[in-house]
Predict the 3D structure of the following.
Amino acid sequence: MFWWAKKHDEAEKTIISPNGRVACKFLLKNNQVFYSIKKDDRDIIRQSKLGFLICGEEPLVDNLRLIRTQTKKHTETIEMLWGEDRYIKNNYNEMAFYLSEDKNSRRIFTLRFRVFDDGVAFRYEIPPQPNFRRITIADELTEFNLSPNTTVWKIPAYQPDRYEYNYEKCRVYDLSNSVHTPLTMRTENGYYLSIHEAALYNYGSMTIKLNENGILKSDITPLSDGTKAHVDLPFQTPWRLIMLADSAIGLTMNRVMYALNDPPAQDFSWVKTLKFIGIWWAMYVGEWTWAPGDRHGATTAHAKEYIDAAIRLGISGLLIEGWNEGWEGDWLENGINNKFTVSTPDFDLEEVARYASQHNIELVGHHETVGFVDNYENQLENAYNYYALNHINYIKTGYAGSMMTINGRKEYHHSQLGVNHYQKTVELAAKKHICLDIHEPIKGTGIERTWPNLLSREGARGQEYEGGALSPSHACFLPYTRLLSGGMDYTNGILDIANSVKRIATTITRQAAYFVTIYSGMAMAADRPFIYEERFPDIFKFIRDVPTNFEKTIALAGEIGGYYVVARKDRDSDNWYIGGVTDETPRRVLIDLDFLDNGVYAAEIYTDSPDAHFRENPFGYEISKKHVGKNDRLDIYMAPGGGFAVRLVRQ
Ligand code: NOJ
Ligand code: CA
């Protein structure tokens, strides 16, 4: 680190990563503050401005002066309760810049930077000060000044289906409409980065937009009153995080987001990851309905049948959707009437819960709020108590409306009020020892480190969009984009792919691969039990065997939107699992098994057959077995829209 102070209104200081490759420069010039980032002495982010606009006050951006700095070196290994990796490095050099205005009311704030080998993060911290205690943020001015030619993979923000869109590739100069983070990019000099945030609490989610000067700037999701956030001081923003990697596949192993979050908030030793089936896909293919009637899915009888099936299949959980009052008629329109403690007449929750407990099956309860947050919050305590009393330890929540209704007003899911609502559910659930899987969630920002009962979320276009709105490339984008923000409930394992109602754009083997390529702390085996038991018990074996908690993850190969190959070691055994997916292009991958420990492994290999094709021949698959060791190599074929799954059992 080096430093020189010029006039008191000018300063420049560089913070270097532990391995020396990443340099983040802080600059005070003309009484304004900026930062820039280089890797290997090459530009990643050029000089970018920082500051705030505050309602009813002068902007907090000009007239700044550096009072003092503070440096820190931090070296730590974090242990995660569950996830893709048990151990995560938290090694960084930190510098805090204490700033004050030299005019106006001499307000003060701190800019704290952390520079990691694979990322840079910074946040604003505003302490309480006289006449400056509760503030309304009109805008956060944080810029990310990248070359306009930088390649970007984006989904749009502020759209009715929240994060559920297909990824598109474009250039920075195309980003005039706001896009969500993680916003993954490739610089002209070949580095990969993703702009995201960590520890999002009590603030609007950051989207990104090109400003009038052609520079990318934070666009904090507004509230319905047009402001960005109302906060009491002290206040700190989420970390603004720039993940860095030399390759696209390297980016998928970035865990800085978790390192930036606090340790667990309480004892969470009761949290267990879960694999579950559900009274679910039968509704999507039109066999059953959510609403009561002749074809009602969530009846006591069906639930017991599914519990019996879960036992036979060796799956520990069962989701039941459509069990409560509120689904009648157009459920999207009528969601304001949903009752979360009242079952439909043909569903006896106590009886089903008793039957499940007796057979050691975990029920996954369901709360579809349709975004009517006021209605949900009025019932929240009672609804969670009702489940807790019935030993229901997992809840899938949903917010399928295009906006939320909070305090009687329409708000974005990813606004400050939306963020606070989700957090309220996570904390109340933690208190009652309940784990959550949130659909239509707020994006992940690593808070699962602090709140590990938040086992999964959706937050991207999932398999419910199959039947026309998903192409084989979609799941090849996710590892490099959405999944950088944490696990996802993609609702894997639909093996009835040729169903005429919801034709799936994958081969059958790829549905097994998803359990490795798309991590989820709550992993749904989404098809109906008879498909697993009667039609494809051989492929289902992989779905049953694959764990939901891993010791370590090694991403092996891939290209954004093209393909992805990953190996993961089980947390509770010496076994390894490998999965791969490809877009419409057939591919052959050679996998060096040098990551294995010494010894012999029995490999069970599930691949597309040479004539398989996601459209023409989706059921073409082969299952083979052989013994391998760390000096061996697997030669695997993936058909168009296909994939593969391998289980390696240590002998
Ligand atoms: C959307 C969710 O993603 C899906 O899983 C759920 O079945 C429906 N909403 C109904 O709640
Ligand atoms: Ca959804």
The radius of gyration is 25 Å. Confidence is low (pLDDT under 50) at residues 1-6. Residues 321, 368, 398, 400, 439, 458, 464 surround 1-deoxynojirimycin (ligand 1) (CB under 6 Å).
